[in-house]
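WARN no homologs supplied; continuing
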Amino acid sequence: MKKLNGLWILMLTIILVLSGCGSASGGSVQGKEAGSKNIVIAEPVHLIAYLPLYAAIDEGYFKKEGLDVKTITATGGAHVTSVVSGDAWGNIGGPESNQMANNGNKDPIVSIVNVVDRANVYLMANKKLKLKGTSDQDLAAFMKGKSIAAGRYGGSPDLLTRWLLLKVGLNPNKDVKLDEPADASAVVSLVAQGKDDIANGAEPQISEGIKKGAWNEPFYGFPSLGDYAYSVISVKQSTINSQPQTVQKFVNAMLKGLKLVNSNKTEAFKILKKEFPTSSNASLKASMDRAYKDQLWSKDGFITKAAVAKPMDVVKKTGVYTKGYQYSKLVDMTFVNKANK
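OK structure emitted
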């Protein structure tokens, strides 16, 4: 019940923010589309998976489009509410989180370009634990009775973990103990300190945990689900209506960032080192190798109906959101299509 209350508190916060907002377009970009635009993109956590966005900033692709883009890290679901409130122009995250915020919202959040096209979540276990096989039965036996650091309730890593537990025949609320900290980076210390047996996460958390001796390589990877709209850039509908040129310029630059990361590993690694200066070269290389192996990044920025259907199916099956959605209202590929012509 506490977990459900936590989600309802988040939803109530979104509603209260909405009641205090007009049709402001978010961030520092409002009014006429003239001159340089200051744009803030809210991220739920600083991740290696968001490298195409960092690359577009570092390589000056946004600057060439007349945009001054920066990121802010907003944990605990605030990457969504910050867009609703207008504190951020856009966010990077899952379309399912946007859809939950859009329920009853007259100015919905709409996804405009794909970034991470795989479910960028992995499961790692305390080094003392050994998985005997990879079948659903093996996974069920391995995870049953364990304490799992799953991340914020309602967040994508948490929901994917719950979905997998259900898939292998376990009850997330009875057969395991789910530890759900708001800060995703906390999962490493929770396992390292022995408070939890298993954790979910992505890079750089995976490499950090390996370095600290908390776990070995992941025993399960959700990228195996294939095309999955895990992290997309989204803005409010009012922003699309009032700033179409700015949105187009942003998408143009993001596509260049995606192209660089997918095609120039050397330059991508240099940018990665700037974003994560405290991580060792070995850890960063391992992270990049994993990302390329799992085909993490979108090649063309397009968000397909099938890729959206998967995270929406996850929230439905876990019971977090069951009210349905319309792809045409949740996603707008106009700008990607125009840029790719």
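The chain has two domains: 2-118+227-339, 122-225.
OK
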